[in-house]
Amino acid sequence: MRMSAAKWSELVSAWEASGQTARSFAGEQGVSEASLRWWKGELGRRNRREPPRRSPGPGRNRAPVVLAKVVREGEKPPSSTEPTPSPVVICIGPARIFVERDFDARLLRAIVHALGEQP
Description:
With 119 residues, this protein is mainly α. The protein has helices spanning 5-18, 22-29, 33-47, 105-117, and strands at residues 88-92, 95-99. The chain folds into 2 domains: 5-47; 63-119, no CATH class. It is 42% helix and 8% strand. The protein has a two-stranded antiparallel sheet with strand order 1-2. The longest helix is centred in the middle third of the chain and has 15 residues, at 33-47.
């Protein structure tokens, strides 16, 4: 069930006035404890005019998925019609990672970590 910020404000106020724990109050109201706590923080941020944070709920916007081109040993890296600087090549065992300009550093760390765990 989706509720408005005004409804969450009422619930948070009722929770604070009740003296109950977040878990017991949320259980009685049929909402998740995480959502109740998140909305308490979010309403405080809104009152202080801070930027909003992502909701813990399932309806939140997901980050886009970034894909990487896998090049097997002996294959040439993908070509492009535009001239681009040569990529940096990282070799981990038999794997080669071609790092282009404007790469996603978090994705690269995850790939290197995953390859490092391989036997």
